[in-house]
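Worked example 2:
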Amino acid sequence: MDSLSRLLPESSTVEGQDFLQTEEYLNNIDSEATPVALSTEEIENVSQSDPELKQVPEILVSCRRHELTYKRYLLIRHEFSSLGFLVLRGTKIVVPTVYEGYVFWN
């Protein structure tokens, strides 16, 4: 083995760091993208009982995106990520239908 190849980090360490960076990034979005009128916990609790948003994290985890019942999410399915029951589209929190029209952004 040459000297340069010994300087490269092991792949498991790199993968672990990538995962931690991704989780940290999502947590940052979570805190920055929360509407002023609501807390993140409130949105997450309501998202658990929202029939549309409840399905999105389950499908993201299982990679069965073709099984989305609510077709309005189908074309943009690749833009979603989830943090617990919080659904994100890019850097924005997807607001449950109960709170549509109620949310104020700073």
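The first helix runs from residue 3 to 7. The mean pLDDT is 74.
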